Amino acid sequence: SDLARLQELARARRVALLPAVTGLAARLLSDTRGDAEEALRRMLVAQDWRLEYLAEGPVTDASVAEDLQHGVVYFAGRDSCCRPALIARPARTPLSMCNEAGTHKLTRVLFFCMEYFLRYMAVPGKVENLSVILDLKDLTLKQLPLNALMGVKQVMSQQYVGVVFRFYICNMPFMLRAVSSIVQAWMTERQRQKIVFIRDAADLQRDFALHQLESDLGGTRDVLTSFFPFPLPQGPFEAGARGGPHPDAVPGLHAALTDAGARGRPL
């Protein structure tokens, strides 16, 4: 198999990989269409980046707590297949963070969210992807530096290839359509196929229960003002469901997923 060839190649070259990087193997083999050489090369690039980025220690909830509370990036709900929805609202970025230092902070928030997903929300063989809802309402060009977008693209394509199932783009301002074309030009064909432009807020109801969405995104939930711990409502998750969250749902099931289980290893 492709995976066996990749494992043999790594052994032959005496390559040691972090657990977080070995988890990329199947996704990279899919992205490279089974090219074990290229997959291993990209795994090593991902590992080098990760070791450098985390040289001063892990990105903890405490270290990003203040920046999470701006509500620029957060999890809030799941779609009809239980994929978590990562909400991104760049217009909420304070002007004081529209600079290189601010970009670094927001990249750390995104990194934290993605690592949280892989450890506590993904269930190997069941829920292996997330969806991104990108709300561009009230966004100005000053809040959208292209160098920041390139940094985000680098992180996502290196560390989280194949993790995003779909990008929902909401409230696209006319003046940003040219920027959108530039961003899409940076994407692969596979990535472009995942983009869905939402013309009406009700469009998201085709994939989400209404109580899983905030009211300004076509749901029945109040617009959130607190963002961590991530405000994830209970099921049901059926698309278009209007009955609200189930009152007897068991909370805190993420605590049952072990480190080994999160990597797909049998208990």
From TrEMBL:
- Which residues belong to any copy of the CRAL-TRIO domain? 61-225
The identity of this protein, by name, is CRAL-TRIO domain-containing protein
- This chain's source organism reads Zooxanthella nutricula
Q: Which taxonomic lineage is given here?
A: Eukaryota, Sar, Alveolata, Dinophyceae, Peridiniales
